[in-house]
Amino acid sequence: MIYSLLKWFLFKLSAEKAHHFTTSIFNTLVATPIIGRFTKGLFALEHKSLERTLWGLTFKNPVGLAAGFDKDGKYIKSMSALGFGFIEVGTITPKPQIGNPKPRLFRLISDQAIINRMGFNNEGVDVLVSRLKALKRTTVIIGGNIGKNKDTPNEDAYKDYLICFEKLYPHVDYFVVNLSSPNTPGLRSLQEKGPLRKILQTLLDHRVTQDISRPILLKIAPDLTEGQLDDVIEIVQELKIEGIISTNTTIERKPLSADANEIADIGAGGLSGAPLAARATEVVGLINGKSNGTIPIIGVGGINSGASAIDKINAGASLVQVYSGFIYEGPFLVKQIKKSLLKA
Which domains does the chain have, with CATH numbers? Predict the structure, then answer.
């Protein structure tokens, strides 16, 4: 009820303005000792049976915050207070960039969906590193989602991924290679076999020089053809990277109940939220089936309830992430999912 009233107010603001307003206020509140302790108690729900161990990492629960919500690592402490088992920061790029012109974030309320064309807006990897160095680490696992700058030619993209990988390596627990955002021109073509293999091999070559082996995951688009998906699985297995995040946003606009003119006025961007759920779950199932369950998967896309999280897990996901569902359902969604998992 409280979030319903707050959401009514927030949805009067533009989507991007509402995001910055709520995260900044919540960050300030959680930093206050009394309110911080109260918040952690309010959202706390942990149990041994919720723990997951993957890649040598122990996740206190399998519910994570997807990349894009906290691009620059500003809200790790406050989001941890909501009970997430892991938080993925980024997408981060070597140099700061402002992203695409505003407005670039839109709600489709009737569909419980979001369209964004943010364009990897972020403060750059050096700023994120400085925040992570200053962070007092908790039990939450932190992932680093890395990308390339818009003005970097695709043939040099591997250099951008390596810069982010090297600088973040001591400060995150796992990495996600993001080649699947639809909002950086030409980025998705890097999912093709040649450039994909080059980028991943570059990161693997650096990893073998390190004392600790950080897991590397690939985040894929839901719009891949079955042949493209086969190629991705082949490369993941060949190079032995640790897993896949399925999926990023979609460029499709079906099924949507929103007015066609409204959708046309919004224009380009990646669609997330409830309409993506079925396709994202389908892709999880395809990866799981085609790999005979040998590739660990983080399932993301349209998770807005305990039942939709369980759908991803039943399809083959080991962990799940939320973003759009978190916006529509509110901060108790994480606890709700964990309750459903305990009952199941």
Answer: 2-343 (3.20.20.70)
